Amino acid sequence: MNRLQFLRGQYSAEPVLRPPWSLPEDRFVDQCERCDRCIHACPGGIIRRGAAGFPEMDFSSSGCDFCGDCVDACPDGALQRNSAEQAPWLASIEINSLCFAQRGIVCRSCGEVCESRALSFSYQVGGTTRIDISAQRCTGCGECVSICPARAMAVKPVQSDSRQEAQS
Questions:
Q1: Which of 16, 18, 56, 99 is deepest in the core (most CB within 10 A)?
Q2: What is the DSSP annotation of 4-20?
Q3: DSSP H helical ranges for the chain
Q4: What is the pLDDT confidence band of residue 161, given thresholds at 50, 70 and 90?
Q5: What is the pLDDT of residues 103-137, one digit of tens each?
Q6: 16 Cβ neighbours under 8 A, 6+ residues apart
Q7: What is the pLDDT of residues 130-159, one digit of tens each?
Q8: Of 161, 119, 148, whose CA–CA distance to 136 is shortest?
Q9: What phi and psi, each to the nearest 5 degrees, are found at residue 3?
């Protein structure tokens, strides 16, 4: 929880996913000037103005291709790419109970669009399908979110400040 969430009484607010190569949340909120340049620079239009005007990711229409245009447009250093090998963020895919495949309905839309092949399917007793997510392969691009007909997929930031600080 950051100061803004505390002051607004949002004690159970879910963390949001900031644009690629964002500083850790507390530093990001302090440094971001909310100029919207990253929003306007995003060719996919998936960065939107969120709470208190801070940018956040919205995968409802497409995923991120990690082009880096948002980083290049950021004048205040809230988005920083230190090397070509640096991961854009620490995020994981979450699948909720609305997933068609897990309810016995044939659907593999998410697996078909996953370029990194992070999603695999295995049949379970009773006719359901289990979706396995490879944390090592998943980039958190969000393509699976926009394609899911059940809206069962979400990209969530990983809650590990020590891992995030190690990347900055």
A1: 18
A2: HHHHTT-TTPPPPPPST
A3: 3-7, 25-31, 37-41, 69-73, 109-113, 143-147, 161-167
A4: very low
A5: 888 899 999 999 999 999 988 887 778 899 998 89
A6: 50, 51, 56, 57, 157
A7: 899 998 899 999 999 999 999 999 999 876
A8: 119
A9: -60, -40
